[in-house]
Amino acid sequence: MLLNLLDTRGLRSQLKDSVPVAGLCPHGAYGVQDSLRSGFSSVKNELLPSHSLELSEKNFQLNKDKMNFSTLRNIQGLHAPLKLQMEYRAARQIQRLPFLQSSNLALDTLRGSDEAIGFDDILNDPAQSEMMGEPHMMVEYKLGML
Amino acid sequence: MALSNVLETPAAGFNFDNAARNAALEGLFERGQAPKPLKTGTTIAGVVFKDGVVLGADTRATSDEVVADKMCAKIHYIAPNIYCCGAGTAADTEKTTDLLSSNLTIFSLNSGRNPRVIMAVNILQDMLYRYHGQIGANLILGGVDCTGNHLYTVGPYGSVNEVPYLAMGSGDLAALGILEDGFKLDLELEEAKELVRAAIHAGIMSDLGSGNNIDICVITRQGVDYIRPYQESEFKDNRKIKYRYRPGTTPVMTEKVVPLKLEVVQESVQQMDTA
């Protein structure tokens, strides 16, 4: 519950602690430029976000976790975020096969997002996505054989 | 890492793929003829009185210069003791208040307690600040909880104010004039309803974006009285939704009865087994 109270903090700490995801991958589903839907690719499109919220939304969960952990470390000492991160790492390993959608129940419970509804539960729900990756390719990619 | 045969499912939440396309299309339309979202162009007002909170709103939704909805409901349900008036982009206010209501319901199911108005305000503030004003929702939240009667305003960038009386929307200046003139602490119920009605009426008269009927919602410790419409506009048209005529509207001129002769050709009896 403590982590849920610390959602928004001062701007300065946000800038210092943020871990930007470098670059913006092309918008197509396979990571390749979808010329039919989004036009020709250009360097500007790949480096700069086309919408002011794009970068901040991409990094939102990362930034939130980083801020929460650093506050927890300041209040309770190093052991608290270490233990929590160990649990997160364990919960993240409970997944189905790569081409199937996992429910992430343990991860949700740890994060507290099983008690909250936001836009990411309604819009673009991955469980309702109409495309599935090719099973053999996805598993080979995960095992590093590709 | 991206490979051309490995599918990356898009992240959940908002999808910004169309932003670049929209920017390119913006240049194609002349003089900004790109379609605009439906705004509510509203007058909403709220007043704290002795036993609770009165919220009022008009019912017009505009899309540029056309009235898109004459009976739009701008007072949204959040919790049994909390209601919210929304001004700004119609879809944004609807969705945001829906999400807020769901979150508070989950909370009360989890903890077995009634939600407080300040919790609704905090959730809204976090949500709206995260999107830096791109969600165009100006909201007035009013409710009664164990700590008293509260009226809050939340702006689209996440700013919060707690005030005893309030008006928002495009007609807020006219409504605020009436409220400033007539407000006193600890008003009675009828006085408070009349004050809010007068404020919304002033907004309707002075602002093009507000109009049609006035809705009033009274929230007290005993319950909620959602009066929709509280006052109907004098200019409503008399078109009916259903056109059903009474039997006997059309006069019968002549009547001719032809009996249908039937012959019994075959008869078979099957016994029914009643136990």
TrEMBL record, chain A:
Q: Which organism is it from?
A: Sparus aurata
Q: List the GO cellular component terms.
A: cytoplasm; nucleus
Which UniProt keyword terms apply here?
Answer: Chaperone
First and last residue of the signal peptide: none
Q: What is this protein called?
A: Proteasome maturation protein
| Keyword Isomerase attributed | no
> Lineage, please?
Eukaryota, Metazoa, Chordata, Craniata, Vertebrata
Q: Name one GO biological process term.
A: proteasome assembly
Q: According to its UniProt record, which protein family does this protein belong to?
A: Belongs to the POMP/UMP1 family.
Gene name? POMP
UniProtKB/TrEMBL annotation, chain B:
Extract the coiled-coil ranges from the record.
none
Q: Which one GO biological process term can you cite for this protein?
A: proteolysis involved in protein catabolic process
Chief subcellular location: cytoplasm
Q: Which UniProt keywords apply?
A: Cytoplasm, Hydrolase, Nucleus, Protease, Proteasome, Threonine protease
The record's catalysed reaction(s) read: Cleavage of peptide bonds with very broad specificity
**The Proteasome beta subunit C-terminal domain, residue ranges:** 239-269
**Does the entry feature the keyword ATP-binding, yes or no?**
no
Mind telling me which GO cellular component terms the entry cites? cytoplasm; nucleus; proteasome core complex
Molecular function terms in GO for this entry? Answer: threonine-type endopeptidase activity
The entry's function note states: The proteasome is a multicatalytic proteinase complex which is characterized by its ability to cleave peptides with Arg, Phe, Tyr, Leu, and Glu adjacent to the leaving group at neutral or slightly basic pH. The proteasome has an ATP-dependent proteolytic activity. This subunit is involved in antigen processing to generate class I binding peptides.
Q: Which PANTHER family match?
A: METALLOPROTEASE TLDD, PROTEASOME SUBUNIT BETA
Family note = Belongs to the peptidase T1B family.
Question: What is known about its subunit structure?
Answer: Component of the proteasome complex.
Q: Mind telling me what this protein is named? A: Proteasome subunit beta
The record lists the lineage as:
Eukaryota, Metazoa, Chordata, Craniata, Vertebrata
